Amino acid sequence: MVDETRESVHARWVRVTHWILSASVLTLAFSGFVILMAHPRLYWGDAGNDLTPALIELPISRNFRHGGWADRTSISENDPGVISASRTFDTFNQNGWGRSLHFFAAWGLVLVGSVYLIAGILGGHFQAHLRPRLRELSPPLVWRDLVDHWSPKGRPAPRGPNYGLLQKCAYSAVVFLAAPLAVLTGLTMSPRVSAAFPFLLRVFDGAQSARTLHFAAFLVLLLFAIVHVVMVIRSGFRRQIRAMTFGE
Amino acid sequence: MKKLITRRTAIVAGLASAGGLLLTRYPKNLPPTYGNLLRMGDNLTYSAHRALLPGQPLVKEYRSSDITSFPAIGTTNPGTYENPLVAAEYRELQKGGFQDWELSVEGSVAKPRTFSIAELKQFPSRTQITRHTCEEGWNAIAQWTGVPLSTVLDATGILPSARFVMYYACDDWLDSIDMLDALHPQTILAYGMNGRDLSVPHGAPLRIRVETQLGAKSIKYLNRIVVLDEFDDGGKRGAIQNGWAWDMGI
User: Fold this and answer.
1) Do A50 and B67 touch (CB under 8 A)?
2) Less Cβ crowding at N or C end of chain B, within 10 Å?
3) Which domains does chain A have, with CATH numbers?
4) pTM > 0.80
C-alpha cells in the first residue's frame, strides 16, 4: 500500500511510459491536424462529403469551403438530390507522410499504452493512485481542491504519485475514456477493421460519426495537455520534470 | 515484490503479443521500405492486419435509400488528359460506346487474354451498395455492379505462385493488392454504378472496387491486370516511391 506519510516517487515504468506516450500523443495531434486539413469538414452518420451538408466546417486550410465543382448531375433514379460533380481545383493534401506518421505514432500509443494499462492494473498503481475514492468525492472536498488549484498560493502539489482529487479524476478520464475513445474511433474509420468488427460502426453510429468523435477525443486530450502543462509549471516546472524523468 | 511482478508481467505480455504478431500469419512478401521509418510502420500495420484480422470479412452493405452524392476527383475525363495520345484514344473509344475497350489479363496466369466489356458482362455479376472511403477524409455510398475479380482470374487460370495483382488505368494510374484482397468476394471490376453504366467521371467503362481499402485503391479507367509472384512497387508511378503507404486497409 501507499505510505501516505512519506512523499513517494514515480515508478520507473510510469516515467518511461509517460514520456513515450507523451511523444506519441504529440505526434498524433500534429499529424492528425495535417490529415484533417485535407478535408476540414465533419459529419454525423455513415457518409459525408463536399456534396452533402457538413455538421461542422473548420477554417483550417484552403480546402475549407472550397468551390470549384463542375458538371453537376443527378446520379440516382429515386432522389434527384443525390448528385455527382467533378472537382476542378487543386487541394491541400499532405496525407502521404501525414497518415503514415499518424499510424507510426499510433503504434507507440497502442503498444506502450497496453504495457501501461497491464502494469497499472496488475501492479495496483491504478487502484492505489488513480482511482478517486468515494469519500473524496464529497462536495466540500471537491470544492477545496478546486479552490486550491485556482488560488495563487495553493497547497504545494506532490511530485510523486500521491495525486490530489482533481488529478485523479483528470488522469482517469484520459487513461480510461479519452485515449480508448480515440483508438476505437480511429479503428472504426478503417475499411478493413470495420469489416472485421462491424459492431464498431453500430457503436459509433457510422464511419463519419466515428471521425467526428475522433476529433472530439483529440479536443479533450488537447485540453487536458494544456491544463496539465500549466499545472506542472505552476507547481514548479524543473522540480516536476525531474520527478517524472529521474524519479526524484 | 509487487514492483518486480509488475515489470515481469509487462515484459511477458509485450513479448507474447509481439511473438504472436511475428510468428503466426506474418506475410512472407512485404513491400520494400527503402530504409524509411514510415514505410516500416506501414508494413507493421499491414502485417498486423494480416496476422490478427480474419481473412476476408465482408464490408457493410447498405440499402439503396442510403446512396449519397458522390464527388468525382482525380482524372474526371481521360478525353482531356495531358497526354494527347491517351486523350485521343479515349475519345475514340468513347465514341464507339467503349465497344472496343479491352482489359488485358496477363502475368502468372495459364491463359493470358483480353476481355471486352461485353465479355465481362457475360460473367455472373455482383451488385453491392458500399461505402467509398476517400483517404482525404470524406466518404460516399454508391451501388456498384460488376464481375468479381476472382471470377476473371479463375477464367484465365491463376497460377499457384501468384501473390499480388497489379492493375493499370489508361490515365497512367497503377496500383496493386495482395491475393487475399484480390480474391475477396467484394473486390469487383465494376461497369455499373447506381443502376446505370459507369459514367466518365467515375471511371467509364471499367474500374476496380477494392472495398476493404481506401478509395485510392479503386482506380478508374482500368485496362490491364498483371498477376505477380513477387511484390512490385510500380516504380515512379507507384505509391511507395511517391511517399504513400502501399496497403490502404488502414
Assistant:
1) no
2) N
3) 12-37+93-246 (1.20.950.20)
4) yes
